[in-house]
Each structure stands twice: as C-alpha cells, then as structure tokens.
Amino acid sequence: MEILLGKNLAEIQAITRKLAMPDFTAKQIAQWIYAKRATDFEQMTNISVKNRELLAENYIIGRKNYDLVTTSADGTQKYLFNTKNGFVETVYLPETDRNTLCISCQAGCKMNCVFCMTGKMGFSGSLFSSEIINQILSVENSEKLTNFVFMGMGEPFDNTAQIIQAIDVITSPWGLALSPHRITVSSVGIMRGMKEFLEKTDCHLAISLHNPFHEERFAMMPIEKAYPIEKIVTELKKFDFSHQRRLSFEYIMFDGINDTQRHATGIVKLLRGFPCRVNLIRFHKAEGVDYQSPSQEKMEWFRDYISNNQLICTIRRSRGEDISAACGQLKTEQNQS
Ligand code: SF4
Known about the structure:
Number of helices: 11
Radius of gyration: 21 Å
Number of domains: 2
CATH topology of the largest domain: TIM Barrel
CATH architecture of the largest domain: Alpha-Beta Barrel
Bound molecules: iron/sulfur cluster
Shape: elongated
C-alpha cells in the first residue's frame, strides 16, 4: 500500500480529494503524521471514523521502528534502520543547548572517498523522503530534536529531490515547522544538486574540502575529477552567504597527509575573503584505512594559522567514537551479508 510519510501537503491534498474528503482534512493528516507523530490512523481523532477507515483501506502511514540502538559513553546514540535498500545508521548527538540528529540519505555511497567506511560499503540505493523522515520521527528523543545534519551515510546531492522534499517536511508549518537554519546539508560538491539546493532552500551548506590541492584531493576523493574544488568555490561565490545562511568547509585532518603549512596556506588562498568557516575534524581510525590522526597540538596550530588569516576556523569536538558513530565511521555490517 502507498506510504503517506514523507509526502508534502499538496500530495496529501491530492489524496484527500481523490477520496472525496474535505480539503482541510489534508492539513489535519499532515499534522497528525509529522507534529503529533501518529503511527496509526486510529490516533487521528479529529478525522471522522469513516474517513479514517477510508485512509486505512488505501494507505499506510509508513513509520518503522529502528532495529538497534547503541549508546556511547558520551551520550551519543547510534540507531540502525532497515530500509528497502538495506540498513542505514542515524546518530543522535545530545548537547546542553541543542540535540542534533545526523541523518543518512543513502544506503552506502557511490563517492568512494578513501578515508570513509560508508564509501567502502559500496552503494545499495537512495532513500525515499519517507525513509529520511522516518529516521527523524522514530528515534527515542524525536520530540527533543532541535538541529539536523545530513552528514550520515550517502551523498545528499546524489539524492537531491528526496532531500529537498524531506527539508520541505521539516520546515513547513504543516510539517515539523522548524527553521531551515537548523538544517545543514553536507556534500562533496556535486554541482547540479548543490545549485538546486541553494536555490530552493535556505538551509546551511557544508562542503567536504579535506585538501585544497586538485591532485591531492583527487587521490582522496574521486569526485574531485568531475567537480574540482576550485570550480565549486567559484560557483559558491555566486550565492549570498553573508546573512543567515552559513557556508562551512569540512576538513578531516590526516597526520602527514593534509596537515602541513603548505595545506594551511592553500586553504587560506582558496577561501580568503569569502564569508565561510572552516571546521577541522580529527580523523577517526577506521578499519582498513591506513591514515592516522594528527596530534591535538598540530590541529590547534593549523586552526590558529587559518584563524590568523581572516577566516573563521574551529575544531569540531569528536562524538561517539567508541560506538563507531563518529564522522567517517558509519558502516552497516548487515548490508554486507
Ligand atoms: S565521505 Fe560522504 S561522500 Fe565520501 S564516501 Fe563517505 S558518505 Fe560518501
């Protein structure tokens, strides 16, 4: 049966019209599914019994429980969800002032970045907006969520339409009614999807930089061949990031690989004068990946050099490393069996 979860108001309206229900029913259904997190039509008590039965005969809401949750010593939780294309992981990051959910958009990933466990899984398929929204609604602390980052498994702009649809659900008044400024989408920089996302949403963007030099970035991230970082930056300069929308460049640091003075200078040269920030991320050891993380002192020196050259630069705190929930560590064994 057709799933309602992940649909926008216009799509639900088309359904209520087809079923000869009053127009206002569509908004009621959307509010029950998203704001009130209903899992069954029976819970929709302001909709007539006849219409609830009609819905149940033709549709399902489509919520699915997670299969497993693991909790880190630092409170981070990693959830495992089964989707039509295999298992995906979702990470809940509680902090004193915010609760962030790191969402997956694909089962596996095609991008094959050499340092990433998800990339090593290969690609099983893209998630529907229903499967993206289900991650948000089905974690234990769903109602406490304040921020969302599309930094889990997969490349968002290899699944742009479903990402934009999910963002519509999160930000619309009939949906979860949260500000687009609570959402950050992270990408290696697939140009077409990136432009569509920037034109259609007001969410923040994070670009995976990891190396300012073409040949070296290509050795780490094959996508550099199709979308060189210099061209991405040139394209991004056509958009306005001077106000509420934030642009950041993510930089995973690998000892002796991309943490030298030359790299720091290269980053400054690439980004100086552009309203953006650089987030440094310590590399988290991953099975089969022959890189090491630099020392804290090295990372601080790198940060200070960039900060002293008119760019905002921070070191991101690592979370959930003990349960393999940290950046670059997401990988579902179940997909490989
Ligand atoms: S880092 Fe992101 S884009 Fe690269 S392989 Fe991993 S999930 Fe895919």
